[in-house]
Amino acid sequence: KELGIEFEYNKKNSNIYIEQIAPLNSTKKNSLGFIDHNRDDKKELMNSSVVENILCDFDFKKLNLKKNLVFVENPKLIFSIIGNNYFTKKPNYGIHKSSYIDSKAIIHPESYIGPNVYIGKCKIGKGAIIYSNVSIYDSTLIGNNIIIHSGATIGSDGFGYNRDGDLSIQFPHIGGVLIKDNVELGANCSIDRGALDKTIIGNNSKIDNNVHIGHNVQIGNSVWVAANSSIAGSSIIKNNSSIFLGSSISNNINIGKNAVVGIGSVVISDIPNNKKCFGVPARIIN
User: Fold this and answer.
1) Which of 93, 116, 179, 210 is the most buried (most CB within 10 A)?
2) Is residue 215 annotated as part of the catalytic site, yes or no?
3) Set 149, 173, 212, 215: catalytic member
4) What digits encode the pLDDT tens for the residues 165-183?
């Protein structure tokens, strides 16, 4: 109730002790499990599990089961909320002594900076968790409740050059990076600074491991980018879109709101709002 979750409960046992969250094949009866409402084998899972406390959908209200059942609309979502609030541990606030912090950096005191982190002239908001061996270059602005996993690099120069005979002359990169609130960056991500403007990652977006984001890219709110994907310079990824595993987005591409880029796709033309694409090169599919 204190999380604001609406639920109903069959309450077979008035004295319930939940020791941990666990999969349904756990041997510990005092665990809390869940059954995803999208599964086709929901009843089989329920009958085969020894876990006695289960989040499930309202279909199970019709059955007389000797378990403690909590009925919710989306069991996996509610399980995630409960797990994050009561069963996961976050590191204590503070800065590890092995990290280097520029004297002009502004870091909220309620943040965690792990071992061997490099932070240049940056601003980092409240509740940030920055794990080991992260490098954050100058001119990076990081919002509140950010998680950055080990090995990520934020604010390095983008790949922008001009040819002058045999010489490669770099275009100046002075724009910086803006990462808004509630963003999570996976291990070994690389996010280039903008050239003359900022590279931007919007609120609530989630970037998986080994993702490269080029200079001047603008990622909207609640965007998902899965592992090993690359987004080339100056592309725009709009709100609530999803880019799945190992995809490549060419430069100056617009991905519309709620769009989906399928696994391994190579996107070389714009994708409209609410469309799915897949393939090499990517084509819009129904």
Assistant:
1) 179
2) yes
3) 215
4) 999 988 888 889 999 999 9
